[in-house]
Amino acid sequence: MKQSKSLCRATSAALDLDHMRGALALAGRGLGQVAPNPAVGCVLVAAGRVVGRGWTQVGGRPHAETEALARAGTAAKGATAYVTLEPCAHHGLTPPCVEALVAAGITRCLIALEDPDDRVSGRGIEGLRAAGIDVEVGLCRDEAAELNRGYLLHRTARRPLVTLKLATSLDGRIATGSGESRWITGPLSRARGHLLRATHDAILVGSGTAVADNPRLDVRLPGLTERAPLRVLLDGRLRLPLTHDLVARAAEQRTCIVTRVDADVLRLAAYSEAGLEVVQVEADDFGNMSLTKALGALADLGVTRLLVEGGGRVAAALLQLGLVDRLVWFRAAMAIGGDGVSAVASLGLERLEGCPRFNLTEVQHSGADLVECYRRMD
Questions:
Q1: Where are the beta strands (DSSP E) in the chain?
Q2: 67, 83 in Cβ contact below 8 A?
Q3: What is the pLDDT of residues 150-166, one digit of tens each?
Q4: pTM passes above 0.85
Q5: Tens-digit pLDDT profile for residues 73-86
Q6: Cα separation of 238 and 219, whole Å?
Q7: Which of 124, 126, 314, 322 gives the lowest tally of CB atoms within 10 Å of its CB?
Q8: CB of 237 closer than 8 Å to CB of 268
Q9: Do residues 56 and 30 make contact, with C-beta atoms less than 8 angstroms apart?
Q10: Catalytic residue flag (residue 65)
Q11: CA atoms within 13 A of residue 298's CA, in its CB half-sphere
C-alpha cells in the first residue's frame, strides 16, 4: 500500500512537471511581443486532460489565464491551473486574472514564480487561497525566472535584460583590416540572428556601426516579418545622416535615437520631424553619455529585453559596467588575424581578476559555424 501511494505521488509530481513545462513553452511565444508585460503561459487540466491553453497575447493582453479559460469554457470547473507567473490581482485595462480563475471554479493552482510588481507581489497568491483554492508555488521557479529575466529586471532594477550578440571569426574579429565584413558567418547563423531579434523588444547599435553597415535592424524571416522591435541608436554626437535607413524607415518601424542632453537642438528637431523618437540622457562621471541612464530611459519606454548588435566600443562599455546579462556568440571557422577589427574594443584591463566573466550555458552547430550562449556570472 505504501509503495502504491509513493508511486501515485511520483506520477502526480511528474505530471505536474510536464504541465508546467508546457506552460513555460507557451510563455516563450510571447517574448519580444508583450513588453512591458511579462510573457506568461497557462495550462488548465481537468480529470487528467488538458482543457485549456493560453499565453500572453501581442501587446500584453489578453493575459495567459484569460486565454486558457476562454478555450476551456465550462470544462475549467474543478481544474488545476499551471501558471508560470503569479496571476494579477489588480484592476488595470483588464479585470484581475485571480478573479477570473476563481469565477471559473478551479480547485488547484500551481505557480512557478511570484510577481515582483508592487501591484501583485503576493496578492495574487493570497487571493486564490482566500477563495479556497489549493495553491503551490515554486515548481520550475528557475526556468520561469530565466524566461522572464527581462521583466524581472525591468521591475526590480529599472533596466532591460541586455543580450550582446557577436558574429565573429574564431579569433574574435568582425572585419578585416580593410573593413570587409560581409559575410563572416553563414546564412544559417544570419537567420538565427533574425530569430534572436524576434524575441527581443529592441535592437541597439552604436553610431559607428550604423554609419558603416547601414543595418535595417528588422526581422526578415518568413512568418515573422510582422515582428518589429524598437530600433535604438546610441549617437552622442548625432553622426547619423538624415538619409540613413534608420531615419528613412522610421515611419515604418519605431525608431529611437539616444543622445546627450546637450545635443544640437536643430539637429534633434530634424530627427524628430523624420519620425524618430529622441531620448536625451546625462553624462556619466567621465563626461560620456551614461549607458546606465540610457538603459533606464529604454526601460521607461517599456523595453524589457534589449539586443545589442554593435559596435566594439558599445560592447566594451557595457561589459565594463557589468551590464551584459547574456552573450550569444556566433563563431565562423576562420581566422582573420590581429590586423582585423575586434568585436570588443579595449577594456583597459591590467589584471585578470577584473575581467567580465560568464558561464557557458549552450553550444550548438549553426551550419559551418558554432553558436555559444553565455550567462553573466553573478
A1: 41-46, 49-55, 80-83, 108-111, 134-137, 161-168, 173-175, 202-206, 230-234, 255-260, 277-281, 305-308, 326-331, 341-342, 358-366, 369-376
A2: no
A3: 999 999 999 999 999 99
A4: yes
A5: 999 999 999 999 99
A6: 25
A7: 322
A8: no
A9: yes
A10: yes
A11: 36
